[in-house]
Design brief:
The chain is an alpha/beta fold and 314 residues long. 45% of the residues lie in helices and 11% in strands. The longest helix has 20 residues.
Length: 314
């Protein structure tokens, strides 16, 4: 080491400086705050850093994105270890709380219990468990099915019992709207609250009126899923706030944005033989280095940092 790093410079460089327990408290405080908590999906730890930098309240880790990233469809093929590992890497990269998609809990109630323990160990702030049958599928596709209320209550009960940090948020998702209708979905949500759910994920509601009806019927924090090209209208943060929702996820949005740009960019390189016309669409090296806090690592060891914007070719 060529220089002595101060504690403040080193803080958060190798893992977040906020403890898992403090992040869980922050998540709960956000849900109680009366302000809509906005949690974009991070397809990587780097994206989680950008989400924090732009000023969102939390980070979401999507099962659909995690599967797609592995080149797989979202049909329950991913494992608990893959989700805990990737979710943990993302949670570690940010000071914000991170909620992770735990699908159906990866099996029977005992597996749902083990899922909660593993996700707590990985430093996540909460997870959602859904009432779909195994194998599950994307909640905005037709042909999905749900387990009985009793089976989901057992799944949730096991998850709640396994929790060691009482601030770890257990979110129950009901997929029933698209199968049994809104009233049945609301009844299920009430049963899930009685089973110990802290937050209800109201999947695939159609329009603002349905979100409002859900809000009026259920007395715990509610989460809206603003995924694109699905069954729900894309409501604004203001609209969701106006009907009293507490949290919103944009689960696949950053992946769709990035993949759209990569698709266009690869086509241009293929047709033009160069990427030079694409530079304005790219994140600049200096912005990447800012997000990664390159300069602070350099202060830790001044042999590391050799980049200045002045010296860059573009
Ligand atoms: C929220 C979700 O569970 C996810 O895995 O991100 C998906 C999102 C999507 O496929 O658009 C879902 O709604 O089922
Ligand atoms: Mg999912």
């Amino acid at each position: 080491m060529t220089s002595t790093a101060s504690t403040s410079t080193v803080s958060g460089l190798f893992s977040s400086s906020t403890t898992a327990s403090a992040k869980r408290q922050a998540l709960r405080a956000g849900l109680d705050s009366g302000t809509l908590q906005r949690w974009p999906g991070a397809f990587s730890p780097l994206v989680a850093k950008l989400i924090a930098d732009i000023g969102f309240e939390g980070v979401y880790v999507s099962g659909a994105v995690l599967s797609a990233d592995l080149g797989l469809p979202d049909i329950g093929l991913t494992t608990l270890s893959e989700v805990a590992d990737r979710g943990g890497s993302i949670a570690r990269a940010t000071e914000l709380p991170t909620l992770v998609d735990a699908d159906t809990g990866f099996g029977e109630p005992m597996s749902a219990a083990r899922t909660v323990a593993a996700l707590e160990d990985a430093g996540l702030s909460g997870c959602h468990l859904e009432d779909q049958v195994n194998p599950k599928r994307c909640g905005h596709l037709d042909g999905k099915d749900v387990v009985s209320v009793g089976d989901m209550v057992k799944r949730l009960g096991a998850a709640v019992a396994a929790r060691r940090d009482s601030d770890f948020v257990i979110c129950a998702r009901t997929d029933a709207r698209a199968i049994e209708g809104l009233d049945a979905a609301i009844d299920r949500a009430k049963a899930y609250v009685d089973a110990g759910a802290d937050l209800i994920f109201t999947e695939a509601l159609r329009d603002l009126g349905e979100f409002e009806r859900f809000r009026n019927a259920v007395d715990v924090p509610l989460l809206a899923n603003m995924t694109e090209f699905g069954k729900s209208d894309l409501l604004t943060a203001e609209q969701l706030t106006s009907v009293g929702y507490n949290a919103v996820i944009y689960p696949v949005t950053t992946l769709r944005l990035a993949m759209g740009a990569v698709d266009r960019g690869l086509r241009e390189i293929s047709s033009q033989g160069t990427q030079s016309g694409l530079l304005d669409d790219m994140q600049h090296r200096s912005r990447l280095y800012e997000l990664l806090r390159y300069a602070d690592y350099n202060e830790f060891d001044s042999d590391l940092f050799d980049f200045t914007i002045e010296g860059a070719s573009q």
